[in-house]
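[scheduler] slot 2 assigned
[scheduler] job type: sequence-to-structure, two independent chains
[scheduler] chain ordering preserved from manifest
[runner] begin chain α
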Amino acid sequence: MIDLFTHYGTNLLPYDGEVRYFGPILAQANDYLARLLADIPWQHDQVFVQGQLRNTRRKVAWFGDHSFAYTYSGVAHHALPWTPVLNELKTIVQGVGKASFNSCLLNLYADGSEAMSWHSDNEASLGVNTTIASLSLGAERRFLFRHKKTRETVEVFLEQGSLLVMKGETQTHWLHSLPVTAKINKPRVNLTFRTFLYVGE
């Protein structure tokens, strides 16, 4: 396992992609976290498991420039209009990440028992070689990358208020996950800013 979490701004991946970790970028991360926990209309995510629709423990919300639908795990999610705080965070993230985004998928993990299994964000609606900026608020959590062929693993610790940007061929060649961390008893909100290609139904 390669551990590169201290190399702010450098490419964490050894090949076949680009992941840059910028560390904490927000001066008022605690305030942003409190506002998001209070104001976002959180709902349990839904996924199909063995043909059955099930609720996840993790909660989500989906926002964007238009009321388009984003489908993953077999379920369509309809974007809500940006809130003022999300617009503020989008402007900050775009400035640091040097990219523009038209949507944001938010995940709320109540504690370390809530996790995300191995996956790639490679839906057709996001295009090829897409850029995704991941902003973390709340509890610090481990985040892992695993190459699809070589199975080489890269680990990074996502700090409060930190930004991680995935771009290039990352989604084609690498999986990523948020593993269970039993000792974490505080919430984490993850905002993944994306560029959605298809507007409308």
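[runner] end chain α
[runner] begin chain β
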Amino acid sequence: MENRIKLKVLGLTYSQVKKGAYALVLAEEEGPRRIPVVIGVAEAQSIAISLEGIIPPRPITHDLFVSFAHGFGIRLKEVCIYKFENGVFSSEMVFDDGTREIRVDARTSDAIAIALRTRSDIYVMQDIIEEAGFIYEESDEKNIVRGDHEPAQKDRGLSSCSRKELKEKLEKAIAEEAYEEAARIQEELNKRDNRL
């Protein structure tokens, strides 16, 4: 389909539209346009875990779905955001088992969470990015993070911890299934690794 544009996941930020929700920011792979998709806390956690490379001690729902599909030889080929109506995005997941192709309607947040885990391509229809997208400006990027994050005040406490303390906190957060906290800690560790 020529009227589709390939996207990448830029990150997550707090939703300015809906209180208590997050915005998943998708970016045109070869262009300046971005699409914010309002998603719930559970989906944001799942996406953050995948973005940060955190492996929970027990599989969460999206991990379970991917394991189930792989167990039966089914792979996710791609995700396509095909409709935008009343502020809601609709997506389609295209699966393949080697002999046939199946299209499944899905919530965009779930489709993206699974696509990240399977490293599948994500597309959007041209008319949707024209309607719902915005042109990236540098000031927009400062509030976008590569995982589930809270405002900077929370991070100041993490920045004063030693690497050892951070690793202990990370293990504890994962064991307690506090994935939002684990993502914040992992991000602090990643920042330190990038400085080295």
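[runner] end chain β
[qc] chain β: Residues 75 and 90 are 20 Å apart (CA to CA).
[scheduler] slot 2 released
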